[in-house]
TrEMBL record:
GO molecular function: hydrolase activity
EC number: 3.2.1.52
Sequence ranges of Low complexity compositional bias: 26-48
Record flagged with keyword RNA-binding: no
Catalytic activity as recorded in UniProt: Hydrolysis of terminal non-reducing N-acetyl-D-hexosamine residues in N-acetyl-beta-D-hexosaminides
Class of enzymatic activity (EC top level): hydrolase
Metal-binding is among the record's keywords: no
InterPro entries: GH, Glyco_hydro_3_C, Glyco_hydro_3_C_sf, Glyco_hydro_3_N, Glyco_hydro_3_N_sf, NagZ_Beta-hexosaminidase
Key words, A-Z: Glycosidase, Hydrolase, Signal
Name of the protein in its database record: beta-N-acetylhexosaminidase
Lineage: Bacteria, Bacillati, Actinomycetota, Actinomycetes, Streptosporangiales
Stated family: Belongs to the glycosyl hydrolase 3 family.
Length: 560
């Protein structure tokens, strides 16, 4: 890696060199332990945390224990607006979405207030305050640094970028009082038609995904944020979005073990704090017709018994249609716990879930021992991560702690190192220094502005330009985007496509002269695209997926 980029990464990546996952409950050694055993200090700390968790558990009522199983959607933008949820259910956690968030100080104050409310209610157990901050297309925060998507990380083949992304994200989340991130995605994206994973995955190679997911998870943990690896047993080979339906992955078990399992096995072996289930139907693992989230064979059998995982298992959101096909919302909650889940994310009707769980415990359907196992895992993780007695976030200083120059530099370095040149017919790139360039399509304003800053004359008319740049964003099957590329080709001007979503767009675009994949539409990636087009940065990324129907294979990438 060039020195100028490496220096931008060091500030955040160094955090990830600290042995992580000390909060594991699986008994696996931290990945940084050369002997394969935790250090004496780590063992003592873990033992003290476990004892604290057992003591807290012994004084909790059944209702307080059931509350720990639930992670509810935060309400409003203040702690007061969610106080009713906390006092009514004593939940194990809350999850933030954009409608809860407006600014750094507001988020930190809300987080602090929610923790105070939790301390004053029930057993006084601190909250997991979580968010989906994968970076790239799944980024809920309105503030802070925006890094490119996971597939861009995979294109660099450099775990330092994974560590820098997660380390910077963890630092910013911590400044906001957020202590859990539903990331990283460990799905191997083997299906080009996947409507919900795509660039959220590091790629189509399980070894690459394993390496990058493990690096991110370790850096999140080293930064004080609980990582949640998702979506077990794998969501990468689906053509249905589990938000709207139930995907069926009908592949033999040996194929699943080869393609989808390795990243999750690596997560288990590293002792990751939490793993999220997928609302997918995989007959090779369970032919009952139940989605994996409700499957004792998948969670209890494969994840717990075969892989030996004893950390927290959390469901994906229970308001998604993929898990609501055949049971009531209350019954879904009960079946998820019976299958082996510990936390229920976003039950659509919290009261129905709470009542169903309490009735199941009273009737013996869920035994006290089974309930206690889940609660003990949750309490132990909270103790190991220092949530009990934690200092509140510095609300007044939160704004200065997010979106720092160091973090933005790390995002720029990732974007530049991930740009992958896949076509360069006739040496159309880099652009001639005195060229007039038309820029249209997705990201045209940002890419055009970047080229203008570098001295190019930019227009919107391909016919009057020396080169036509067309931005796409997952354009396969999108008539409007494809027509822009066709119009540029028909002008007779050499056409360069900048693909900012999945790189699979090239299969539908016809014979374009240049094709640059950035795997992300964040500002850093569009700025990097302009610099690569101009030759200010040489493209260095390598394709993290194969592209069916073309001669482009995993690992391909041109440079100049």
């Amino acid at each position: 890696m060039p020195l100028r980029r490496l220096s931008a990464l060091l500030g955040t990546a160094v955090l990830a060199l600290v042995p992580a996952m000390s909060g594991c409950t699986s008994g696996s050694a931290p990945s940084g332990s050369p002997s394969g055993s935790p250090s004496p200090s780590a063992s003592a700390s873990d033992s003290a945390a476990a004892e604290r968790a057992r003591e807290r558990l012994s004084g909790m009522s059944v209702e307080e224990k059931i509350g720990q199983l639930m992670v509810l959607l935060a309400e409003g933008t203040t702690a007061e607006e969610s106080a009713g949820l906390v006092s009514a259910y004593n939940p194990g956690g809350l999850i933030y979405f954009p409608e809860n968030l407006s600014g750094a100080e507001q988020i930190a104050r809300m987080s602090n207030g929610l923790q105070r409310t939790a301390a004053d209610n029930g057993a006084g157990v601190p909250l997991f305050l979580g968010i989906d901050q994968e970076q790239g297309m799944v980024s809920r925060l309105p503030v802070g640094t925006r890094f490119p998507d996971a597939m861009a990380v995979g294109a660099t083949r450099d775990t330092a970028h994974a560590e820098a992304l997660a380390g910077a994200t963890a630092e910013e989340l911590t400044a906001l009082g957020i202590n859990l991130d539903y990331a990283p995605v460990a799905d191997t994206n083997t299906n080009p038609d996947n409507p919900v994973i795509g660039i959220r995955s590091f790629g189509s190679d399980p070894d690459l995904v394993s390496e990058m997911a493990a690096a991110e998870a370790a850096a999140f943990g080293a930064g004080g944020v609980v990582p949640v690896v998702k979506h077990f047993p794998g969501h990468g080979d689906t053509d249905v979005d589990s938000h709207t339906g139930l995907p069926v992955i009908d592949k033999p078990r040996d194929e699943w073990e080869k393609e989808d399992l390795p990243p999750f096995r690596a997560a288990v072996e590293s002792g990751v704090d939490a793993i999220m289930t997928a609302h997918v139907l995989m007959p090779a693992l369970d032919d009952s017709g139940e989605p994996s989230t409700l499957s004792p064979d998948v969670i209890g059998g494969v994840l717990r018994d075969e892989l030996g995982y004893d950390g927290i298992v959390t469901t994906d959101a229970l308001n998604m249609e993929g898990v609501r096909q055949t049971h009531s919302d209350g019954e879904v909650a009960v079946r998820a716990v019976l299958a082996g889940a510990d936390q229920l994310l976003m039950p659509p009707d919290p009261q129905a879930a709470f009542d169903a769980l309490r009735n199941a415990v009273r009737k013996g359907r869920i035994s006290t021992e089974r309930l206690d196992r889940s609660v003990l895992r949750i309490l132990t993780a909270k103790a190991e991560r220092g949530l009990f007695g934690a200092e509140p976030a510095d609300a007044a200083g939160a704004e200065a702690a997010v979106g720092t120059q160091e973090h933005r530099a790390a995002a720029r370095a990732l974007a530049e190192d991930s740009a992958t040149l896949l076509r360069n017919k006739g040496g159309v790139l880099p652009l001639d220094a005195d060229a007039t360039v038309s820029v249209t399509g997705s990201g045209a304003e940002d890419i055009g502005a970047g080229l203008e800053e570098l001295g190019y004359t930019v227009t919107a008319d391909p016919a009057s330009a020396d080169a036509a740049v067309v931005g796409t964003l997952s354009a396969r099957g999108d008539a409007e985007q494809l027509s822009l590329v066709s119009a540029a080709r028909e002008s007779g001007t050499p056409v360069v496509v900048v693909a900012q979503g999945t790189p699979y767009d090239i299969t539908d675009l016809g014979a374009v002269d240049g094709y640059l994949a950035t795997y992300s539409s964040v500002d850093a990636s569009r700025s990097a695209a302009a610099r690569v087009l101009a030759g200010e940065v040489a493209p260095a990324g390598r394709l993290p997926v194969g592209i069916p129907g073309t001669d482009l294979d995993f690992g391909d990438g041109l440079s100049y």
